[in-house]
């Protein structure tokens, strides 16, 4: 099949040193929570990207030696030859679909507390490790440096033996020894590896050259380099030294993989970097300084933006981590002229949270991500229907939409009834809050496909009650009726309703999203939820001119957003908008004109003036329909209803990712008698 212009440009092969990428789609290294512990899951996930058309598929960072290990994070390992077979699974899975396999070798230096190996961390100069461990790294002496170079060379040889086509040296995200040597703030050496820029780049030059010597006959050598740390004069920057660094190394690697640092900037969420290609202003100069191909990222999901990058000489290869997670088949869909079927990344970083929490990667948009091996799920294929039965899905939020879509893909005839005038549920409502517009993509993708499916009927403005459901008599009913934020303050911290709530106007996130806002004045947002919503609502109210205080019983603001790389940015933004932040305080009582707060440690109280209170605490499942229907099994069977189940927030309120997942799971398990015998395969330690 020939690809239509202008997108044919994206399917041109690109020569990278001794290897050739079959097209310009390049899955850059990304962490995933499988790593060295779950190689089968890892191989199946990477293989899926190759099947979906990514011409190059890379590993996550792969530790080259036990002096660099960041347990309990589960990264790759290539410490010795015993690691090779697990990597073989990965390269075989990638090669099976004609893609190239890349490996990102890493030595984390200052960033590696070595909690398992218990070997002293190493760095250019002695300093505390950059985790919170009470531990310091020692300065590397010249013997350490010789060893460090040898470990890279040996790891590269093992990578070649494992079948990799591209071997990386890594100086990005502030996470690697090579980068630490370049950073003045981490390198105070007085020998030939410190001082002048040339000296600070020496180790990188040696490592890239030695990897080339070792494996360059058949493997390309890539260099991943952060061109800007967004720290101004404190860090490496385009305005400062990184142009010179690129100049010094220009033709040495076979491929430049360039980005901004740290990880929170490179993988910025859509809330903080809404525009596709947001790294261009930093990375664009690199191509003018080297004849070697350049790959870069920017949450690219639109083929026009990709073509523009190549045409304008910004990038040769379109790098993607998150867009390849949200849609492993993105390249294939462009190739096959199915652009409308692309499942666009929403930039929420739920994928990152999996890595942070040391569990297999998950994704809001792609519920099959991380489930390729253990459940055998495929992002584009699902088992055909097991009967000609019809199904009714009540509620068109993320969970109902996903369930209806997958049932429809299986070939079931599905009726989707939504009470309001639009599909999307919370993905639509939340998309109207500051910075969250891309959340609507959860709805857009599903709604777009559902509307093309012959077997699916959608009814808007159709709030169903139990009588109408019984009257319709669909044999199978899925209730995706969502949840509602509590108005009484109960949640994690308070197990009984707050006292005195009648004394102040009280709002919930549902009110705010419905456009019902406090009249102005002093508003307290009480956040006992700890994810993004409390902070977003505080931001919205500050934008409308309220004098906002965010109170939380947690130790810090929007605590869970640490796992999505957003917390620092959220706090900065709230402070910039003059939101007062009060942590470790609970509401003891609501007073006329204010709140009595209590310290969560000592119980000491203080009063805070307020004209209105927004409670972001917990949600109640909207399961009244379920309770009334399931209470009358005789009426159900008389109506011909064989199965009735709750999905999404109606079952267990959680993230949008969770609701999509539960909708998908229900559709996968539908009419499968054995769904609960072996929930999923497990990678188990074998006792030899
Ligand atoms: P989830 O995240 O689980 O998908 P949402 O709250 O986002 O849940 O979506 C629930 C959707 O269900 C909303 O769009 C809401 O309007 C709709 N809904 C709730 N109750 C009914 C009902 N009885 N009949 C039809 N639609 C309903
Ligand atoms: Fe994108 Fe969110 Fe999926 Fe990550 S979890 S790939 S940010 S949609």
Automatic annotation (TrEMBL):
Keyword Oxidoreductase among record annotations: yes
Keywords on record: Flavoprotein, FMN, Iron, Iron-sulfur, Metal-binding, Oxidoreductase
Domain NADH:flavin oxidoreductase/NADH oxidase N-terminal: 10-338
Domain spans labelled TMADH/DMDH/HD second alpha/beta: 508-585
InterPro entries, sorted: Aldolase_TIM, FAD/NAD-bd_sf, FAD/NAD-binding_dom, NADH:flavin_oxidoreductase, OxRdtase_FMN_N, TMADH/DMDH/HD_second_a-b, TMADH/DMDH_FMN-bd
Cofactor(s) needed by this chain: [4Fe-4S] cluster; FMN
Residue intervals of the FAD/NAD(P)-binding domain: 391-487
Protein name per the record: NADH:flavin oxidoreductase
């Amino acid at each position: 099949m020939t690809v239509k212009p202008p997108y044919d440009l994206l399917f041109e092969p690109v020569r990278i040193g001794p290897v050739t990428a079959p097209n310009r789609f390049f899955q850059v290294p990304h962490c995933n929570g499988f790593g060295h512990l779950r190689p089968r899951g890892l191989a199946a996930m990477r293989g899926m990207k190759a099947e979906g058309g990514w011409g190059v598929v890379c590993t996550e960072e792969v530790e080259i030696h036990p002096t660099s290990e960041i347990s309990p994070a589960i990264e790759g390992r290539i410490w010795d030859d015993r690691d090779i077979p697990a990597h073989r699974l990965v390269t075989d899975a990638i090669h099976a679909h004609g893609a190239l396999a890349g490996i990102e070798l890493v030595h984390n230096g200052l960033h590696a507390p070595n909690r398992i190996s218990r070997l002293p961390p190493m760095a250019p100069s002695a300093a505390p490790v950059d985790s919170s461990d009470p531990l310091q790294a020692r300065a590397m002496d010249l013997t350490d440096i010789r060893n460090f170079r040898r470990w890279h060379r040996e790891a590269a040889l093992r990578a070649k033996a494992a079948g990799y086509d591209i071997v990386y040296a890594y100086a990005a995200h502030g996470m690697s020894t090579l980068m630490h040597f370049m950073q003045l703030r981490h390198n105070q050496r007085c020998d030939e590896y410190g001082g002048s820029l040339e000296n600070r780049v020496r180790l990188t030059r040696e490592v890239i050259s030695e990897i080339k010597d070792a494996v360059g006959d058949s493997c390309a050598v890539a260099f991943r380099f952060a061109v800007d740390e967004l720290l101004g004069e404190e860090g490496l920057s385009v305005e400062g030294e990184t142009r010179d660094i690129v100049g010094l190394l220009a033709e040495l690697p076979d491929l430049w993989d360039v980005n901004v640092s740290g990880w929170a900037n490179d993988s910025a969420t859509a809330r903080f970097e809404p525009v596709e290609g947001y790294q261009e202003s930093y990375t664009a100069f690199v191509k003018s300084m080297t004849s070697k191909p350049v790959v870069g990222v920017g949450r690219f999901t639109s083929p026009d933006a990709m073509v523009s990058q190549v045409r304008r000489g910004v990038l040769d290869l379109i790098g993607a981590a998150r867009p390849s997670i949200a849609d492993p088949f993105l390249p294939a869909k462009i190739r096959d002229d199915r652009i409308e079927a692309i499942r666009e990344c929403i930039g929420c970083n739920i994928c990152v949270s999996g890595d942070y929490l040391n569990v297999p990667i998950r994704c809001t948009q792609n519920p099959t991500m991380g489930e390729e091996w253990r459940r055998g799920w495929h992002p584009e294929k699902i088992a055909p229907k097991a009967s000609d039965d019809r199904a009714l899905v009540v509620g068109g939020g993320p969970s109902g939409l996903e369930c209806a879509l997958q049932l429809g893909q299986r070939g079931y005839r599905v009726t989707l009834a939504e009470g309001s005038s639009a599909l999307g549920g919370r993905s639509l409502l939340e998309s109207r809050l500051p910075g969250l517009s891309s959340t609507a993509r959860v709805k857009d993708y599903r709604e777009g496909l559902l509307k093309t499916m012959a077997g699916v009927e959608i009814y808007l403005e159709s709030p169903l009650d139990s009588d109408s459901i019984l009257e319709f008599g669909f044999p199978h009913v899925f209730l995706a009726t969502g949840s509602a934020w509590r108005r009484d303050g109960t949640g994690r911290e308070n197990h009984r309703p707050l006292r005195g709530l009648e004394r102040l106007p009280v709002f919930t996130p549902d009110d705010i999203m419905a456009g019902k806002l406090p009249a102005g004045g002093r508003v307290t947002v009480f956040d006992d939820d700890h994810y993004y919503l409390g902070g977003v609502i505080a931001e919205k109210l500050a934008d409308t001119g309220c004098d906002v205080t965010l109170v939380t019983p947690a130790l810090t603001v929007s605590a869970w957003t640490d796992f999505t790389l957003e917390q620092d940015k959220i706090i900065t933004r709230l402070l910039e908008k003059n939101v007062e932040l009060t942590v470790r305080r609970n509401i003891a009582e609501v007073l006329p004109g204010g709140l009595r707060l209590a310290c969560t440690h000592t119980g000491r109280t203080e009063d805070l003036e307020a004209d209105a209170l927004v409670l972001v605490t917990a949600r109640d499942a909207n399961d009244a329909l379920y309770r009334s229907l399931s209470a009358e099994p005789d009426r159900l069977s008389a109506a011909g209803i064989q199965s009735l189940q709750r999905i999404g927030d109606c079952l267990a309120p959680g993230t949008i990712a969770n609701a999509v997942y539960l909708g998908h799971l229900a559709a996968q398990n539908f009419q499968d008698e054995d769904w609960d015998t072996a929930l999923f395969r497990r990678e188990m330690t074998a006792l030899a």
